[in-house]
Amino acid sequence: MSKPLLYSSIRMFYANDFMHGNCALLSRIQRRWMTSSKRVQDRSRNKRVDDLEIATEKHKVTSKILYLFEILKGEPENIIPLRNLDQHRQQLNLPKPHKISDFLRKSPKLFEMYKDHRGLVWCGMTETSEELVKEEQEIIEKHSEKAAEYVTRMLMMAADKRLPLDKIAHFRRDLGLPIDFRKHWVHNYPENFKVVKPFKPHDEGEYLELVSWKPGWAITELEKTVLGLMEGHDYSDHVPGLLSLPFPLKFPVTYKKVYRYGGKIAHFQKREYLSPYADGSSLQAGSAEFDKRAVAVMHELLSFTIEKRLVTDFLTHFRREFHMPQKLMRLLLKHFGIFYVSERGKRFSVFLKEAYDGSELIEKHPLVLWKEKVLRLVGYRGRKKRIESFQDDSDLEEETTMLGNDSEDDHMKLQLEQDDTMHSLENASDTDGSEMEVEEVCRAYND
């Protein structure tokens, strides 16, 4: 028996309403499913390395302190009104309502505050901080030659043998370059590189261009390690070409699927690839050879850094210059035996896993040891101290009563062990201020 015409009309009405009224909603849901399933945060928990999350947390703490050091170094007499630091909230990752004064109170061994006769609060470095800043400058100057080598090798890997200075600036601290490297340092090595104007009229930025090719530097760090090549030997006849060296792999002990994919991993390791210093313009994007060379380029760049880690954004900025794929993050996540991507903070960081034993670097650059010294002076447990007033503004250095004293040594702690809670300076604005607020790394990564 046929159904009434009214029933068919109603069914058609609702079908059309669904198609036209809810199509956009379904499309958004579908797009959400397609994109969110590939997010870094949705990786299997078995792929995560808590030790490297601890290393990320350490970096987050020191980066804030070092940024404050640079601000104070650029001020007359290395002091600044506290209210002037408000414009640096974004760089410090201290959005309102977090108080910068509370943040500074967490490190009385490094920063001191006082009020002048007008009630204006000032911030400055302690004598310990000033000594640390001088020590950092000495270390940077001592290892300047090696930093120049790494910058030169980056230019040798670049497609046009030149890189924008603005992009190299992102690597400044990672490579151990001085803060004034754009004005002075880049001109100290005319035999390696030079600053040039852009070819295109609409391009206003400056570039660093390779002056002379150095065959002895066209050897990857992996070649030196695997083949046992020694520094200082004559490799002037070396010509970069195809390599068949396997990359060191480290998988979490809890990751069992390595046995399932063992054949694919072995096949990848045996595949030949073009050296990062060889011309890769002929490789087809998306091919297995193209991707493996990109892995080698990223491996080499991370090997140059003092902490064997980089913000992933810095790598993506160089996709065109180094012939790397557009979807670089997907490649990093795919080869998680070589790289580790941490999503802590506003920016993701990528680690070279072979360089770490747990949360510690196997070989520590002097600047890393210096950062660890700074880190040991960060954070304390105890009650908030009142900002003392300065009664005589004729001598800001001798008469001022500063925050912190030697009696607080027993309260100065930084607990960044894996089994303990993590102290994050991002939570430095609690009302009671009794101690540094904490985040537990392992709990932050529950699926």
Short description:
This protein has 447 residues and is of the alpha+beta class.
Secondary structure: elements and pairs:
Layout (H helix, E strand, L loop, with lengths): L4 H17 L1 H14 L13 H24 L5 E3 L7 H4 L7 H6 L5 E5 L5 E5 L1 H16 L1 H14 L4 E3 H5 L2 H4 L17 E4 L10 E4 L10 H7 L14 E2 L18 H9 L2 E2 L13 H17 L4 E3 H5 L11 H7 L4 E4 L6 E4 L3 E2 L2 E2 L4 H10 L46 E2 L14 E2 L1 H4 L3
Antiparallel strand pairs: 1-3, 2-3, 4-6, 5-6, 7-8, 9-11, 10-11, 12-13, 14-15
Helix pairs in contact: 6-15
Describe this structure in words.
The chain has helices at 5-21, 23-36, 50-73, 89-92, 100-105, 127-142, 144-157, 165-169, 172-175, 221-227, 262-270, 288-304, 312-316, 328-334, 366-375, 441-444; strands at residues 79-81, 111-115, 121-125, 162-164, 193-196, 207-210, 242-243, 273-274, 309-311, 339-342, 349-352, 356-357, 360-361, 422-423, 438-439. With 447 residues, the chain is of the alpha+beta class. The longest helix has 24 residues, at 50-73. The strands form six sheets. Strands 1-3-2 form a three-stranded antiparallel β-sheet. Strand 10 (339-342) and strand 11 form a beta hairpin. Helix 6 packs antiparallel against helix 15. It is globular, with a radius of gyration of 27 Å. Residues 1-38, 380-385 and 389-447 have low confidence and may be disordered.
Return the average pLDDT rounded to an integer: 76
Tell me the fraction of residues in β-strands, as a range: 5-15%
Low-confidence stretches: 1-38, 380-385, 389-447
Question: What overall geometry do the principal axes of the alpha carbons give?
Answer: globular
Q: How many whole angstroms does the radius of gyration measure?
A: 27 Å
Number of helices: 16
Q: Give, in spatial order, the strands making up the sheet with the most strands.
A: 1-3-2
- What is the number of beta strands? 15
Q: How is the biggest beta sheet arranged?
A: 3 strands, antiparallel
- Helical coverage, percent range: 25-40%
Indicate the structural class: alpha+beta
N- to C-terminal distance: 54 Å
